[in-house]
Design brief:
Chain A: It comes from Nakamurella leprariae. Chain A: One of its GO terms (cellular component) is ATP-binding cassette (ABC) transporter complex. Chain A: One of its GO terms (biological process) is response to antibiotic. Chain A: It is found in: Cell membrane; Membrane. The complex is a heterodimer of chains A (about 270) and B (about 325). By secondary structure, chain A is mostly helical. Chain A has one domain (about 5-265). Chain A contains eleven helices and no strands. With about 325 residues, chain B is an alpha/beta fold. Chain B folds into two domains: about 5-225, Rossmann fold, CATH 3.40.50.300; about 230-295, 2-Layer Sandwich (Alpha-Beta Plaits). Helices cover about 35% and strands about 25% of the residues of chain B. Chain B has twelve helices and 14 strands. Chain B is elongated. The chains are: A mainly alpha (about 270), B alpha/beta (about 325). Chains A and B meet through helix 1 and helix 4 of A and helix 2 and helix 3 of B.
């Protein structure tokens, strides 16, 4: 078998294992879908009542932001699962098998795309129920979902490195929550950034999450001419800027994570 | 004789701990080597190096002539590894665990399936094979773990403390499974803290302590190092021990050892049952004896002789849970 063929085949074996596990422990899926439902409802009815936006319904503005936050949280599942596999000695077993070096991580990150797809479907339904509509072509709508998944996929390689380094699912969960929450909040996810204090405003404008959200909003026609993006390069070129981030994340963290995987010691 | 595992001058340090301090091993193909040592001796570290999981700081190791560093991939294809802690995926069934391992060894799908079924059968897991392994007992998980390491019929098998944590009955069952593998000609390197286990399963034994091999040979050779049989008495009252020593003076080959805490008297002797009868005659009614006997040395005695301390139990009677790191510093 060629080494690429082997990497793909082994990656799929591990993906299958991870998907089986998701099916047998559906709690993960339940919670990764319940929390976005909760966010959609809370934000739409609580913030939505207090945040009037010119030319666009708050729920339309909101959805891209919630999607972005949800898939980034979803990508952190990669880290939790790898940390768990470490503590259970499974990574040792995998490392003693003549399988492709990348397979455990590829299989993990692939399976987590599956989780994100499921929670996106649930969110689409919830969003539609509370009045969200996409005002674009089918192709543009799909491009928006694709962008979200790709972004989350590239973040999951960063999560993989952290998960292999902290080795404890609990520590990973707490740490990732503390980091992801502000990163997805100091952005245009839930409110426009115009009135942020200066420092936060600059951070928000260069935050790749903002670019991702802006790109998806534009693709879904969930913006309005009265609400133009700030005049900064990342938000004027949101697809390009978030795309560069994805590429950067993958270029840096795929090799680093695979290297880490080859060296980790369970105990 | 072909050598299946060859290790020379293996050194591994972790920060301040020297886990391996120059280990040499040679395991002929088709034999079982027992790596025997207490907690923290360096057994797992040695196994992890031999199975490509860890890089040594010095020395080299080959498996079937393949260098574990340079030919790591080819080594992995010919070995089976069962780590100290059962590495089964709890959310997969027993069958799925084996199937996954087989696929990752790149065996054809059909072969994996039939091999998985026959291994489940062989390890007495056939009925549980389609249940998720989270429901398995400790002994079942261990067996599944070993079955997974056998899926590709490895020529060399590494078993790191395969029976630690098992109840006595599961342990004996596990011994039977391992003995059966030996019958099939698999070369096995087995680590253990249990002297009885090494005695029972291994052709050759290497005793490790503080990262060094302090003795090697067959079980009988090691026992011979300790000397012959001992006469042992257990009495009701520790104050009787000197009385015993007095009564039996001149009968032994050396001075007796009096253990007040356990109220035992122990003395090297030769002459078998004759000595025992003579001893009983001399003691007669002078002290109350609970137990008396002639004991051939077992590997526990070997360990005691070699290291000056018991292998499994510390003097305070608690199992040795103290990290070896501390002990290593004390001796330095
Ligand atoms: N990853 C590690 N980091 C630091 N010290 C370690 C590590 N692994 C093992 N050690 C130390 O190396 C020594 C040998 O450990 P180990 O090989 O696990 O012994 P054994 O398997 O015989 O109980 C011990 O002192 C242990 O604390
Ligand atoms: Mg060990």
């Amino acid at each position: 078998m060629s080494s690429v063929g082997m990497a793909v085949a082994d990656g799929l074996v591990v993906t299958k294992r991870n998907l089986l596990k998701i099916r047998r422990v559906p709690d993960v899926l339940v919670f990764s879908t319940l929390s976005p439902i909760m966010f959609v409802l809370l934000f739409t009815y609580i913030f939505g009542s207090a945040i009037p936006l010119p030319g666009v319904d708050y729920v339309d503005f909101l959805m891209a932001g919630i999607f972005a936050q949800t898939v980034v949280f979803g990508s952190s599942f990669t880290g939790t699962s790898l940390a768990e596999d470490m503590t259970k000695g499974l990574i040792d077993r995998f490392r003693s098998l003549p399988m492709a070096r990348s397979a455990v991580l590829v299989g993990r990150t692939f399976a987590d795309v599956g989780i994100n797809v499921v929670s996106m479907v649930v969110m689409v339904i919830t969003g539609l129920l509370v009045g969200w509509r996409i005002n674009g072509t089918v192709l543009e709508a799909l491009a928006g979902f694709g962008l979200l998944l790709l972004f989350a996929y590239s973040v999951s390689w960063l999560m993989a490195l952290i998960g292999l380094s902290v080795r404890s699912p609990e520590v990973f969960n707490n740490a990732s929550f503390i980091v992801i929450f502000p990163i997805t909040f100091i952005a245009n996810t839930f409110v426009p950034t115009n009135n942020f204090p200066t420092v936060l405003k600059v951070v928000a404008e260069w935050n790749p999450i903002s670019a991702l959200v802006q790109a998806v909003r534009e693709l879904w026609g969930n913006t309005s001419p009265q609400l133009p993006p700030p005049d900064v390069w990342p938000l004027q070129h949101p697809v390009l800027y978030s795309g560069l981030w994805m590429l950067g994340l993958l270029l840096v963290f795929v090799p680093l994570s695979i290297r880490k995987y080859q060296r980790v010691a369970a105990r | 004789m072909t050598v299946a595992i060859e290790v020379s001058g293996l050194v591994k340090r972790f920060k301040r701990t020297t886990a391996l301090d120059g280990i040499d091993l040679e395991v002929p193909e088709g034999t079982v080597l027992g790596l025997l040592g207490p907690n923290g001796a360096g057994k797992t570290t040695a196994v992890r190096i031999m199975t490509t999981l860890l890089k040594p700081d010095a020395g080299r190791a080959t498996v079937l002539g393949l260098d574990v560093l340079r030919d790591a991939d080819r080594v992995r294809a010919v070995i089976g590894v069962t780590g100290q802690y059962a590495a089964v995926d709890e959310y997969l069934t027993g069958f799925e665990n084996l199937e996954m391992a087989g696929r990752l060894y790149h065996l054809p799908r059909a072969e994996v399936r039939s091999r998985a079924r026959s291994l489940l059968e062989q390890f007495d897991l056939a009925d549980a094979g389609d249940r998720i392994s989270k429901t398995y007992s400790g002994g079942m998980r261990r067996r599944l773990d070993i079955a997974a390491s056998l899926i590709a019929r490895p020529r060399v098998l590494f078993l790191d403390e395969p029976t630690t944590g098992l109840d006595p009955r599961s342990r004996i069952t596990m011994w039977e499974f391992i003995a059966a593998l030996v019958g099939e000609g698999t070369t096995i390197l087995l680590t253990t803290q249990y002297l009885e286990e090494a005695d029972r399963l291994a052709d050759g034994i290497a005793v490790v302590d503080h990262g060094r091999i302090i003795a090697r040979g067959t079980a009988d050779e090691l026992k011979a190092q300790v000397g012959g049989e001992r006469l042992e008495f257990t009495v009701t009252d520790a104050a009787d021990l000197p009385v015993l020593a007095d009564a039996l003076s001149g009968l032994g080959l050396d001075r007796p050892n009096l253990d007040e805490a356990n109220r035992t008297f122990s003395m090297p002797v030769s002459g078998g049952a004759g000595v025992l009868r003579e001893a009983l005659d001399r003691v007669a009614d002078r002290v109350t004896v609970i137990d008396v006997g002639l004991r051939r040395p077992d590997l526990d005695d070997v360990f005691l002789t070699l290291t000056g301390r018991a292998a499994e139990v510390q003097p305070d009677g608690k199992p040795d849970e103290r990290p070896a790191r501390d002990r290593a510093e004390v001796t330095r």
